[in-house]
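Sharing a chain and its predicted structure for anyone who wants a worked example. Both blocks are below, sequence first, tokens second.
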Amino acid sequence: MRIENLKIPPEPPEERRKRIEKLLQRQFGRLPSYRIVRRSVDARRRGAIRYVYTIDVQAGPPSPPGPVYEPFEGFSVGLPAALTSSAGLPRPVIVGFGPAGMFCALLLTRAGLRPLVLEQGAPVEERTRDVEAFWAGGALKPWSNVQFGEGGAGTFSDGKLNTGIKDPSGRIPFVLKTMAEGGADASVLYDAHPHVGTDVLVRVVRHIREEILAGGGEIRFHSRMESLLLRDGRVCGVRTADTRSGETEDIPAQEVILAIGHSARETFAQLLRQGVSMQPKAFAVGVRIQHRQRDIDRMRYGEERPAHLPPADYKLTARSQDGRGVYSFCMCPGGEVVNASSEAGRLCVNGMSRAARDGENANSALIVQVGPEDFEGEDPLCGMRFQRRLEEAAFRAAGGSVPLQRLEDFEKGRSTQALGRIIPAVRGPWALADLNGVLPQAVRCALKEAMPQFDRSMPGFADPDALLAGIEARTSSPVTILRDEGHESPLRGLYPCGEGAGYAGGITSAAVDGLKTAEKILRRRGIR
């Protein structure tokens, strides 16, 4: 049976567990086996903040009593290596090793298909060194940075695992369980807003890689897909190039899974030249805003954060006079703003937190909806060019450093000359600037209209000293690569999936889409 809306005071974890078990013992006459399904914080009444639990209690004799973190039911991936229907066929080729590519490869590996993964970036250990060197003022590496490399862009963007997608088949619990097995805290299995942390994600990514390799899969790093190989109107393989040596190789494939991520701009252009069907997609752009974390805690919890509550987060929405949605996105408690650039002469930002979320500042994207009507041109890549123009303006605004501006100065249309109370928490060089010249007029006006609305929801949010950083332009892919119900492109043999293809918006939803795409291929081969 399921027990919902169980409210527990913000006590230490062990005390909360004892309180839950005492309530269960009172109701059942014994301590049954139970599973925490969901945990959230209700901070609507500052004087009565509570954890809110949903718990499943297992019927029958307890074996063993106490908490059980394995789902009672879920997505099954215990597949036999039944390859009789696949004998003689080339192995599936997966382009990209972010969440969609990783989980697609994981399922195909467990089914015995030994996929080949092509990743233009570096392994996560090498990639981490490259990113840290770039943030320290070193050169940008075009194929090993915050956007490209093992783990995808999500590896350096806080590791949030919450998603709003519907999941009747239990794929989300499978993704979360895999994360926990790879080193994420067990709380990701039940927290309403599960969070891994950038530092822990590195271990999780490595764990998934090792399972794929142990199961017969192959991962080639520094291997960039140059073009598709086509025959008789369908895909028959890919041409790759080593990003270090430039050597090329043609690889045969009956199925090519595109899990290329939202920043694979040169790949989008190459696919379009080869006749892959795609169309421009709406997304959102804006800035990152930084407050002191203790100020956000006060806005959400009261004058002092109660002990044993996590650093406060928030989710804000507003609407501009012209009807555009304005909202917070990817809020990072105790986090940092990071230079997330991947192209020379262009600059974009993101946010990340480590697992402890113990930094001095909180940050979040404040973004505004934009669509094809805002882009120049009508071709499928017009949104991509829109992003690039904004990133070029951001690069110019502070000479290649991350441009920062006080909120009061932004609202009054003047360049920031000195910081206020908030000390920047930024990974990468930064400089004071004026973001008014970076943002399109419609976006600039919408953000200024939204700030009073945000401040009414969270008094104090429109702090004059709050720091804006820009530009946040890669909230999602600027294109949708068309596919049918079988996840196959009109160009047969090509399977677009994940965030880069326009079918996901975050780590978990991309991973789920990768699983779904793997299932489609397995069914086509008669294995599942």
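Comments welcome. The two ends are 31 Å apart (CA to CA).
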